[in-house]
Amino acid sequence: MRFPFLFFTLFLVITSLFSQEARKELTLKDAVLGYYKGLYPDNLYGLDWTSTNSLYKKEKDALVLYQPTKKGTKKLYSKDLKINTDLAKIRRLTFENDKSLHYVQQGECYAKTKNGEITFSYPKKAENLTLSPTKKQLAYTIKNNLYLAHSLDSAEAITKHVDPNFVAGQSIHRNEFGIKNGIFWSNNGEIVAFYEKDETDVHDYPLLDINQTPGSLKSVKYPMAGQNSEYGKVGVYNTKKKTLIYLQPVHEKDDYVTNLTWCPDDRFIYIAELNRDQNHMKWAQYDVNTGKRIKTIFEEKNNNWVEPEYPLYFIPEKNDEFITFSERDGFMNLYHYNTNGKLLNQITKNQWVTTALLAVMENVLYFQGTGEDPRELHTYSIHLDGTRLRKITSKPGVHQTKLSPNGRYLLDQFSNLENPGTSQVIDIKTEKVNVLNQAKNPLSDYAIGHTIFNQIKSTDGDVLYSRLITPNQFDSSNTYPVLIYVYGGPHAQLVTNSWLGGASLWMHWMANQGYLIYTLDGRGSANRGFEFESAIFRNLGQLEMKDQIEGVKFLKKKAYVDSEKIAVHGWSYGGFMTTSLLTNYEDVFTCGVAGGPVIDWKWYEVMYGERYMDQPQDNPDGYAKTSLLQKAKELKDPLLLIHGTSDDVVVMQHNLSFVKACVEAGVQVDFFPYPMHKHNVRGKDRVHLMQKVLNYIIANNK
User: Fold this and answer.
1) What percentage of the chain exceeds 90 in pLDDT?
2) What element of type H or E holds 15?
3) Which residues are catalytic?
4) What is the value of pTM for the model shown?
């Protein structure tokens, strides 16, 4: 009886080997350009709800409609929508129903509503295009001024700044504090509020433009830690009265003007005001007509930092009650206030992070949060009084969701380590699920490595999540060199229960070169609560390095890990971590590649840097300890430094100063610039970048 069994076993082995040989090898070029090569799952990106509770997505020359409870689709073309423009030429179209839609495209704004059609033009050099809720007016910026278009041949300048230091209608404070735009229409579409910043006292930072002969300098405004910052304020323009006023704050000149919220009846504007030290936040109420500051609604203090990231959310049909986010109890939760500043109740009391509020309908809140596993993202409902918490998304993974206008259906698009992506609609009342699309594995024909999740503990007992990628032909009896990919800073999470575990495809290419690719989210990283994130306060890099070293210790316990060949690579904060690890733990690593690294926090921007490090004059020991300039002499292993020469996030002064310190210390270091690239290298040049990075690791990790 043994022979049939042996024959079957031999058959399985041969079949497996044949299958492996038949699978394609992933090239580095394909891995880097995977989105363009069709190597990422087709997950119906761009799906959104119509006002009639169906779903739509623009595909080439058609609008595809999906019903939440039915299979199949319906396609609408330009003639069906009764528009003269070819749909294929429209990049983004917002479709409410067959009688209401609009698009802003190539100098033309078109809107069809129940009241008729509106078409007007705007200059093609316009930026920050923001259409009014009534679709009758379009606000936009040209250079540093704000404009308004409201008919085919009519436009007006809201601001007329000649001095380029005054900038209106753009995002301010370098996009910190959740700020993504600078134009805010009132609910009735008659008034437009906007951010304005005065950068007069901010230093001009020179960036070299080599595309001209001779080369020239182009300066950007870059406020460095401890130095003069920009001064923000809010303008309010009444389009009917043709009047412009500015809100009249009482805070210090260089305090932050952050999240802006309109009252439902458009009588008041609410602003989250934050002091320069970022440890005292006040929600203030302003009169729209006079600009006067009426009162502070409530305030919040913290010894580390307070970071307002969300506007207020007014409860439907109530002008005096709203919901706000706060980390005051250690985790981001939801709180119910009235406009007199009275806390009505804390709605959620979760020991995990709330990330978004979707809607409030009939005293029920729908919101997103991590749930018990911080590597995931789910959607929940809860009643306004804090009772009846319900988890709506059930399957493990990262769920991105949108609630239908009537609150009955939830569009749920999710993936996890095993599932490339599912797009489905959940009937919230009946819990029935209609799967619209199940993405196929685009890598099924490729020899791809294996991803393993792990948990370890920090020296202080915190759970740390990590991800290990092994080669496709992994053999635990062999030993493998390691590449640690690191970020390590706030507002980032690298290890998630999503497709590929949150990894990039180039990591799988590198794994198939005979490497183990390891990533760990240490203290300071996102979605773990305030204590976990703020543990790094005033001493960036110190605890993060300790956590990465615990990850190394975990790896060294594995018999298949070559503990003498451990390299490290990261970008931005990860570049700071890479350089920090090589200069503080030179006996642990063999080599590293640091892209766009922060070298000394005194050269980083005010808004981010001072939140985590305080101002240099208030934390001289922290700035001295975290600076890598004095660590250059400790560098023993090969290090490749990379920087985009037009980087306006981490300016190249960081990298060049470290090179200079290495020269003065007699230490050899490698440096490679990417001319005219900003903080990251994108497009086809990114293939060159990853070849440079990974070839360096392979050549020096010996």
Assistant:
1) 92
2) helix 2-22
3) 572, 647, 679
4) 0.94
